[in-house]
Amino acid sequence: MVADTTFNISIPSDSDGFVFLQCSLCGEFFKITPSDLEDESQLHIWCPKCGLTPDSLITDEVRELAMRIVNNHVSDLLNDFGKNLSKSLKNGKIKFKPGSKIKKDAADPIVSKLDNLEPRIYECCHKEAKISPSLKTEGGYCPFCGEMQDGD
Question: How many whole angstroms separate alpha carbon 120 and alpha carbon 99?
Answer without folding.
Answer: 56
